[in-house]
Each structure stands twice: as structure tokens, then as C-alpha cells.
Amino acid sequence: MHNKQLxxxxxxxxxxxxxxxxxxxxxxxxxGELAAAMRYFTQALAEEDPGRKDLLLDIATEELxxxxxxxxxxxxxxxxxxxxxxxxxEEQASMxxxxxxxxxxxxxxxVLYGGGPPLTNSAGVPWTAAYVDSIxxxxxxxxxxxxxxxxxxxxxxxxxxxxxxxxxxxxxxxLMTREIAHQKSFEKALYAIEPNFPSGKLPGMPAFTDxxxxxxxxxxxxxxxxxxxxxxxxVSDREKQVAVDGGSGRASIGLTxxxxxxxxxxxxxxxxxxxxxxxxGADLGAGPGSGRMTPLDKVKAPRH
Length: 304
Known about the structure:
mainly alpha; Ferritin; two-stranded parallel sheet
């Protein structure tokens, strides 16, 4: 059921097509409201727990109302340019300068979409279901949802910092604040599952769950709670970072005699001729700055 009143009142002081293009990031972008609504809605459909199902449907529905708010902001910011372009009230060159001078891809938004909010991000990339990263496990999906709300909050902060329009800032502030509220709800739902870590059913291999491998060594090595203390076995020895299972560290596979014969035949056919020094197109066309090339008198014919 749709209510014609917005969840939060939108007041835009003046048109700003360039700002409208940037706002599209939260309309059809990866951190935007449509992506959030579809993420939570599809999760809810598969959810067996009645509490989480209700939570996901509530927030998915609210995200659609947020989509309406941000889309309304985009449409209002485009109002002036939309009318001028549609009615042709200016000379062509003047109109083009006024639209492109707004920055970003605002001229594309005006020409292709008539100033309406398209389902694209701020760079004009169309919305895609690939933004929905659900995996079907509540402990995984809730953590992903928490991260998604956190990312969306940061994008809203950046958009707020771009505009002096008090009405737009206020509406964006509301949307940003709801990201905080949703993050809290998702965290409560996550920790209501006991145990909730690690995700899934299978336990980790005890020999490796507490090991920290110091793989990037040199100036800048740091120790902290993430790799130090009784919880961690800190391994810096390079020899102990390979073949940690106690095996050879080499890959192997079992092949039938027939498969092995065909594979060896392929290896022989594609073998590199180590003693050859073939003349290449790079040698023939070499010019200044090409580095050391093969002298023609030292070229060796390949063996057959």
C-alpha cells in the first residue's frame, strides 16, 4: 500500500542538476536504497525465523520509502533544467553551457532521462542485481547488512558535505540516521543467534583457527589485538608459512594411465626449446628505447 506522503518532508531551495547527478549514487548505486531494499526483501523471502523475517520485511519496505525520498530530491534538483530543455526557452549554446556547467553527467541525465531519476549510479552505470550479495545464511547476511548500512551512512555523509542547501541537508541527515538505526537492529538480530561465529555449521580446523601468518614483512610490521596475545600463534618464519599441513606443499592428482599418456603427449608437443633464440617481430622493428635486442648474427634456429 502506498502512502502519498513522504516518510520525511523534502524541501529543496533551488535547482542544481550537478548535485542531482551525485545524489543518484544513493538511488541506483551499489550502496543505494534500491540495492538495500532488494537485499533485505529477498533475504526475508527465504528466512525461516519469524522474528528476522519480520525485521527484514520492515526494513526492506522502509528502504523503498527512502528510495522515494532520494528520488524526489533528484527530481526537484533537476526541475529548472528539465523545464528549460523540454520547452527550448534558451538558445542552444546557452542551454548546453548551463547544463554542462553544472558538472558531472548532469547533461546526460537531462537529455536521456528528462531530468527524472534513472536507476543508475552517479557515473551513469545502470543498477544491477549484482549489488545484492546475499548468501542465504543469516549470520553471513546480517553481517553483510551491517556493513551495507555502514557504507551507506558514509556516502550520505559525503553528500551532505557537498551541498549548502539546508532542506537537502536535513533530508539527507534523516536518511543517514536511519542507516544507524538499521545497523543497530541488524546487530541485535545477529547476536540473538547463539552461537553466531563462525558462520555456517562446520567447525574450523583447530590447528589453524588461532594462527596469524605474518606474510607481509619489513618496515611497518605491527602487533596488536588482531595478531598478538594468548589468542594468537604468530608465525613469521617463512619456512613455517608453507606446507603447513605437513605435506610436500606440491599439488598432485590421480590420473588413469590413458589420461597420463595424453597429458604427456600434450606436454611434449608444447615444450619450450630452451636452446633456441628465435628472431621475433620485436627484434625486426626495434628502435630507440626498446632495450637489448637479439643481434641477427646470433639468432639460433629452433630444434626440431
